[in-house]
Amino acid sequence: MQNPSFLAQQKTLEKSQGKNNLQSLFGTHKNPCDNQTKSLLDGVPPKELAPIFHYIFKGLRETGYLKAFTSIDKSLLVALDGVEYFSSEKIHCECCSTQTFKNGRIRYSHKAITPVIVSPNQKQVIPLSPEFISPQDGHEKQDCELAASKRWLERENFIFENQSITILGDDLYSHQPFCELLLEYGKHFILVCKQDSHQTLYEWLDDFEREGKINTFQHKKWNGKQHIITKYRYMNQVPLKDDDDALMVNWCEVEIKNSKGKVLYYNTFITNFTINNTNIKTIAEAGRARWKIENENNNTLKTKGYNFAHNFGHGKQYLASVLATLILLAFLFHTILEYFDACYRLLREHLSSRKMFFDDIRALTRYFCFESWQKLLEFMLEQLEIPLPESV
């Protein structure tokens, strides 16, 4: 509900009306206190919430909802990225990552991998179960984003049975051990591949360029104001590193300019898809969709009312990571409701600002007690003079 004061408001509402929305909307019998809630959650590993993500993913597949998210070769695009959601030089626990500065100061933080299903053709993203970057038993080295991503792949691979998956990631992921792990699990990949971190690959490309073997393809499109020229360059079967057992990957470059020659976008990718003039555009669009994990997911969680980076409680074990997982679930529920609940979708269409929508819900549930979520949504539609959907 994006309401950090909901508990206190409902206690006040119960004093005046003898009932509250905690009971009617959430089915509670007694109002829990903050300390009790945090104490109970602190001992719960966040992986205990993973089955809820699995259940929703399975339901989305069965209803056909995910078909709109498929891309090249009917593959789902899953973007991986790390995000920090807590940092402090004072508050810390055994699950914190640490950073020691030269002056002796120690910075404590919590980070996570927040995988999401993305599509170049869909505004929404679909969050999947997260994996947390935290000290691992039996490991002396500090945990990192790449290691957490490997654990996520090993833990979550089973939910993608009989579904083609393409992993998207930044340059951190475009290294042979991770690419080989993806192939071992039957996954495709389209990963950013920068020149300064892949010297050998680009030396091979320079040689191919001198021999005139780099494939080039471009197209021009009118956007209503000016022509946009997109130029693609690609080469199949290039070694990823300088070694006899180097993995052979396929490389492409995309550069977008306007009619005045100004570069609007530039990036390079490696993939295991064989590239040709027919599919290069689709591959590049899929690679570019990776940015949605930062803009539509991480940025939304931090700046659109979810307060993902706010310390609602740190605890001594898992509290911070459990609360972060619950926030991800809330975001997932809101995304799914827009598709499956007619009343919810109508309200979001008319109250297009996420802030306005949740401001209204906070105000209404502060002063009125509703029998159910359905009654709350119907009340909002009636007050906005929006006809109720025929299915209601």
CATH-derived topology of the largest domain? Transposase Inhibitor Protein From Tn5, Chain A, domain 1
Helix proportion range: 25-40%
Low-confidence stretches: none
Helix/strand-derived category reads alpha+beta
Number of helices: 13
CATH superfamily of the largest domain: Transposase Inhibitor Protein From Tn5, Chain A, domain 1
State the order of secondary-structure elements, H for helix, E for strand: HHHHEEEEEEEHEHEHEEEEHHHHHH
Number of domains: 2
Shape: globular
Largest β-sheet summary:
9 strands, mixed
Mean pLDDT over the full residue set: 92
In the CATH hierarchy, what is the architecture of the largest domain at level 2? Alpha-Beta Complex
Which CATH class of the largest domain is shown? Alpha Beta
Q: Strand tally, please?
A: 13
In terms of DSSP E residues, the strand content is 15-25%
Question: Terminal Cα separation, in Å?
Answer: 23 Å
Give the neighbour order of strands across the main sheet.
Answer: 6-5-1-8-9-13-12-11-10
Rg, please?
24 Å
List the helices and strands and how they pair.
Layout: H1 6-17, H2 21-26, H3 34-42, H4 50-63, E1 76-79, E2 82-88, E3 97-100, E4 106-113, E5 116-118, E6 126-127, E7 131-133, H5 145-156, E8 165-169, H6 176-184, E9 188-192, H7 199-210, E10 215-222, E11 227-239, E12 248-258, E13 263-271, H8 280-288, H9 292-303, H10 319-340, H11 342-350, H12 354-367, H13 373-383
